[in-house]
Request: fold
Amino acid sequence: MKTPLILIVFLSIYSSNTISAELPGVWESEAAARAKLLSEVKWTPVAETMPNRKGGFFQKGTEYTGVPYSSVRSIGRYIGYDISLRTFLAAVENPRSVLYTETLVGKLSNAAAFYGAVCSSYTSYALLCGVPEVSRHHGPDFREGVIPVAPQSGRAARVGDIIFTPPARKNGGSHIEIVTAVTHSSRGEVFSILVEESKPPTTISTERTVAEFDAHLAAKKRELYRITDLDQWRGSNRAEPLHFPNYENDAAPPTINRSLLLDLGDWVVYEKGQPVKFNVMDRDERGTKALVIRCDENVVEEITMTQPGVVERIFTECGDYTAAVTHADGSQSESCHFAVCDLNYEVPESISISKEWSVSFKPENMEIIAINLQSISDSYGRHPLFLTNADRRAGSITVPANLLKKTGRLHVWLIGEHPLGRLKQLKTITMVE
Reply:
């Protein structure tokens, strides 16, 4: 990660709004800039069928600002975590991509488009987390290095502060927002506060006066928190050692292939055995002769194509692949890049919460970075465990005894990472005393 690029993006935004103010610290400035990578991106649907979390569909030909809101469930590949922003932007340009041909509506609660952010993945992205922290885990009840702001008022707000909305009812949903700019009067008093959040249908930026900000806090008993030590707050959940989030890629406008795109976009990972759909579009009307698929520079298949269309293939060999179109004049298009990977892991059918237990794995063309444990009987029982190099060499990770507090069912997510994206696999086991 090149910090100067992020910092320059932030300072250009911040200085245009500030009358007179003390600049925020370095990590706070960078967090605001990272948030804006997702909240200020512009995209335009090319088909009528991309589901909108507020209902209906995003309108074809209408430009939207900010990434779409999708689902808290992990089946949707989170922008900034499981895929890069450029992959989403490539998928948007393909009318045959999963954004338009698939929907999570009716399959998962509170879900819509296949790609998207939610409030907690959005703030976790800004705060340089390796995997998303759920919204209620942002605050001092669950984390070190974070405190309530005093007074609970916009007069005390700073860039990087987070706003937590508690559940309206027991086991209900909560919400998290982040302060990305604070402007001051010439006397140094807070004049306005810019708050950004992921909320249906896309990210939302709201600038409020102090009075409006205070009313916002009071409306749903919201709490304003300040992270005093980012490293302590994150603990082991740090993005720096990982491929994702990749802020450099997200900050650079991608060049989208105009000859063909994949159903998952471009620069993306597929599971071994998962169908890959190539949409040969020939947008520039250069004519087509063939679709050429390569693995590690070796030609896997050359498919004769005299006109645009969709080709579907299943790959059973893991590796790094490219696909390109041979035009009518014999020239080659830009390549789409994808990887085929396999996680391969085993967990016991049941475990005792009072004893340590292990997850074993043998991935192909991908590195295991973490397991994420989510108790079904305890919504607060969420534990991402990051692997050490010793764990990877051993091909297993040991879960300590008494980490989980309640018996019942447990979701075990194995998270693998490739430079082009992440894969997650879920297995459910039973916890007993």
In short: Confidence is low (pLDDT under 50) at residues 1-5, 7-21. Residues 48 and 60 are 5 Å apart (CA to CA).
